[in-house]
Amino acid sequence: MDHSPALMTDMYEYTMLDACLQDGTANRKCVFEVYTRHLPAGRRYGVVAGTGRILDALENFHLDDEDLRFLADRKVVSRQTIKWLENLHFSGSIKGYREGEMFFPNSPILQVEGTFGECTLLETLVLSILNYDSAVASAASRMVSAAKDRPCMDMGGRRTNEWSAVAAARAAVIGGFQGTANLLAAQMYGLKAIGTAAHCFTLVHDDERSAFASQIAALGKNTTLLVDTYNIEEAVKTAVEVAGPELGGVRIDSGDLASLAQRVRNQLDALGATNTRITVTNDLDEYALAALQSAPVDSYGVGTMLVTGSGAPTCAMVYKLTEREGADGEMQPVAKKSKDKASVPGRKLAYRSYEYGLADVEHVISGSEEQLAAYQPAEGWKDLLVDYVDHGEIDSQYQGHDAITAAHEYRAKALSELPITAQSLMKGEPAISTDITVL
Amino acid sequence: MDHSPALMTDMYEYTMLDACLQDGTANRKCVFEVYTRHLPAGRRYGVVAGTGRILDALENFHLDDEDLRFLADRKVVSRQTIKWLENLHFSGSIKGYREGEMFFPNSPILQVEGTFGECTLLETLVLSILNYDSAVASAASRMVSAAKDRPCMDMGGRRTNEWSAVAAARAAVIGGFQGTANLLAAQMYGLKAIGTAAHCFTLVHDDERSAFASQIAALGKNTTLLVDTYNIEEAVKTAVEVAGPELGGVRIDSGDLASLAQRVRNQLDALGATNTRITVTNDLDEYALAALQSAPVDSYGVGTMLVTGSGAPTCAMVYKLTEREGADGEMQPVAKKSKDKASVPGRKLAYRSYEYGLADVEHVISGSEEQLAAYQPAEGWKDLLVDYVDHGEIDSQYQGHDAITAAHEYRAKALSELPITAQSLMKGEPAISTDITVL
What we know:
TIM Barrel, 2 domains, 16 helices
């Protein structure tokens, strides 16, 4: 199970390295940029997630003997390149948007600076992580808005790859979720874990009453009982008989959730279980959550639509060379000119300006290192870039549990500073426009 | 990086185990079934993939001291359950559809038999793997049909989670693809790896000519040159000048691929490079591939739409208890009755019948172990179930590279035996109907 992230890579990163080591360009200084040309159709903003995981992967981004033998045996690269790879270590610098930050088309979400060789090898992994994690965080953020103040919990692990499930749990919390059903995510990232029982638990017992009694004996009266295996009304009656009015909660996982929640709430109240909470789960997405706002629900479990990005399972982020050293040793802005895929050359700064406390424009400034160093943003513009890696040194404040908590809080604040249109579920333009200045 | 698949699990699997160990039901014999209630809207069939990966995970499905400490510290389970978990080992049996087999609504894709305790813990992981891998294989199969005899290659790793990328490469090959750009997938599963260069390779050089010359020096004349960084016509001219007419291939990654391929083919032929192959890549899906059938293209690189299941990034597979031992020691069929989620109780057999060599009906037979043992299928019915695990013993023929090759070949044959409607890209009903018999 122990595999290097340095092989989580498209082969062409290695063949390019091989050719560039032979002709000397592998040592040219470069700036690569991660950005997206567009948000998913109709989305108002995206939420950055995954950068902390990139830093984790960077710490292990080297090849062991078996990996090197594989690259040699398959003739992916030459002998000389194998030598170079034995000492693979990223010594460059990375800056970018915070996790939990909103992004828009052309936002320079990550900028990676180093030699062509070391930067190129990172492309696939950086994109895999940012594209998936940001897709989940972006969907999560819309769901949390639609759920208003009610907590949303990730229960989607079973509907995506087993490792995606772990990344999705982390990204969901960055996007505003409160916790996850996924234990490995809880272990790796210190997230709150939730969950009590499934239908099979009721079915393996001889009747619902003995199942409920067993669960309460093991997990206490504050547990949540699943009440829709047979007949919901019967189950709620049995639940309160077994647990008493101190019953923690009930969960409904099928049917018309709003009307069922209403009936169950009334029944619970009539039985004196006025503090018993109602959780609903069943193919929820942001639209379903918005429709449930007036139903007496206390919390949501969201699965499939969370981990698949609610219709946008990936972002369209790309990793493009924007500046590189030329034969003369001078840094030069570069960009491809492919039809519909042209990119903005040069390294970037990024700021967000505000009017009456609300964001109005994303400012992306392109220029040479000297120009950008001398650039003076207008008063009140927020600098959107933080330094993640400085000449190979990772800033650990962006890793681990605390970074996730910070990102969770940051997202809520940053979203509150966008025009309220951002929270609309109607399809439309990005919430703010992006202004690109080439110095 | 070394984490146990036994924690790639929703917390409720463990809390259910905990309660069932305390009340004794954890030792009840059970049969769980994986199936889907429906295919993605309009799809004609699905392709099973992932089962081999489940077997791999099963070999490592146990908890180390750190995992046990986590479960204890978080109070997920009681002390007694921790003891039980120290010896966690799946001793049950698993049968199911082959990888590469077609599935339909209610096909019993996997059946897991053992004690409630050991079977329950597998739920999340089994579903994560089958739901994602089968989504990718199902999309891949449609793409391969649409591409006719032209090879399709997976280049989607950057658009999905970094581990999904590895699983997607494997599933793509099961679904009919020929290879992948992903090196870790190539290493782990012995897949063919492909890839030469990206736009940044051209951009890091001072001009396109020196980039092409460098690539040919390193990778030989048989390499594929990317020709759309600046001007395609210029690039093709330069490519043949540098490599000569023996140039292996060119790749086009932007614009109107059909008309560009036609122009490039004519240009290559006029330059004498009649054997130079054309690869196209750029947000391809099965519809785009079908539209390219008359264009002079030699192979396809497919990315985003492959790894995101081409609009269906997950299958709707569920893992349901269908039979269990009662208090009297007798096995009893069970099923929940939740609205819109009712399931067919009982363990199952599955056969496919044929008329004039074409599949016409999927037969799912439910009954007791004795009834199924005595069941006689009609002549010519194909038994769809194979034994993956027998009382804890994994049949290794379903793991590793050879199993993938077998599944790749099996899919092509099984698809050819479905009515040709199966290969239609128009939305419609499943290619064959499923007949459920309860004995």
